[in-house]
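Data card: per-record layout.
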Amino acid sequence: MTIIEPPPSRIYLLRHAHAAQAQSGQRDFDRELDDRGYGEAELVCEKAVDKGYRPDLILSSTATRCRQTADAMHRAMAGECILQAIDEIYNGTSDTYLALLAGQAPSPSVMLVGHNPTIEETLDRLIGRDQLRLAIPNGYPTAGLAVLEHAEDNWILRDFLIA
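The structure for this 163-residue chain is written out next.
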């Protein structure tokens, strides 16, 4: 498991919602959420806010589908958080994701909106493979939101929300 020092009190890992297939000649980066994705994003973000999950900072990939998912969270919170789009998240590794999260301390809570398989690999590194398999045995779904809290020297998966 990976240590982030100093740790934020809570980390949120949100995989972007369902995106449309790329059109002929369209870059993957420019893929937008489809109707299913817009519904997923709105629903998971509303569930999060209803449970009191409110990040102070949202870090999003600059890819269109991630920005649209992050925008749904920002709207659900009535704009009461900082939203930043970061290029490195798009093709980043779990090392990139973890470095970005660590670099945001001392922010009390940070949400990272990213892509699979990297978002799942990041969760694995924070909580361990056994806990990952228990929480999401079928893999990280689109619009899946992991809520992690720091306790002593470990990250604990407090909740996992899906649309």
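Known properties of this structure: The chain has a mean pLDDT of 91. The domain at 12-17+29-161 is CATH 3.40.50.1240 (Rossmann fold).

See the next section for split statistics.
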